[in-house]
Amino acid sequence: MPGPVAGNQIPALVLPIGTDVFYSAGVQAQWNQWAQLKDSQGNIIFTMSGSGTDPKSIGAGYFHTADTNYTLQIGINNGGSFSQVLWGEARLMMGGVLMCDQYVYAAEDGGGTDYNDTILILQWLKPPPGAPELRRKALAHPGQ
Predict the structure, then answer these.
(1) Is 119 exposed, middle or buried (0-12, 13-18, 19+ CB in 10 A)?
(2) How many domains is the chain partitioned into structurally?
């Protein structure tokens, strides 16, 4: 698991163009948590914020990629300061083709060392060429 790094120094995300990327974030912290994603032109894709000592969702949605490079920042008080962030990636492959990719970010705002203040997940599916045909075959021959 890479990191920790400051929430304004998370390495750039390289996402495939033409993909729907789903995102969700939750918090468990007294301080106001904040996360923002921008494309390479500086356009804001999403901003989420919130707090709560009990686990709480602060946002979810999706966007369609028109760019390949994105910048994610995670911090507190609307980006007034930045959290320490750990992250990891999970990839699902089929026949050497990437079917699903997911990045998970866990942030620590400085109140401890548990990295449970913000959790943010980005995931996307990009079916390979022939995916509709593969699905038809799977439905026609379940269990094979």
Answers:
(1) buried
(2) 1
Q: What is the pTM of this model?
A: 0.83
Amino acid at position 86, single letter = L
How many C-alpha atoms does 141 have within 13 Å on its Cβ side?
Answer: 4
Alpha helix ranges (H) inside 2-141: 131-140
CATH number at residue 131: 2.60.120.400
Q: Which of 126, 79, 139, 72 is nearest to 103 (CA)?
A: 72
CA dist., res. 31 & res. 52, Å (int)? 8
The per-residue pLDDT for range 4-45, each reduced to its tens digit, is: 999 999 999 988 888 889 999 999 998 999 999 999 999 999
Give phi and psi for 129, each to the nearest 5.
Answer: -55, 140
